[in-house]
Amino acid sequence: EFVTGIRNCTLQANTFMEPYERIPVNLSIAQAVLESGYGTSRFAKLGKNYYGIRETDETEPHIKSLHPDALNKMLRRYEHGCESTLDYVTLLTTDSRYEEFQYLLMEQWFTDDYDLHALAEALAKPYALDKNYTNKLKTVLGELSD
User: Fold this and answer.
1) Which end of the chain, N or C, is more open, meaning fewer C-beta atoms within 10 Å of its C-beta?
2) Are 13 and 33 in contact (CB under 8 A)?
């Protein structure tokens, strides 16, 4: 049910994007799975935040971390689950930190040869602090393709 919901939200979010900017559905699902534990994390349950999208403005809806090492960390709170997916798609396609990812995504669209593992590599460094994030994301991608 979680995977189907993320799939549908990704397809919906992609309709707002140029064809060469559309995020591969399995990549979106894999990140949502990894970031939210299939929607079971506290941030997913309380804030419908499936991608670990941070919030920097305390006046905006957010959830604060309870982790002792990250008490000032805030994640966005959404009213509807698809809002999280739309923010995720918009972040990856417009934020300058993801230029390498954006270029690779466009290149793969033009050649019609998508390599989700290469996209995961281009995405992981700016997206996560975890040095093993790329491998974790690739593992989830592999599980989704089985």
Assistant:
1) C
2) no
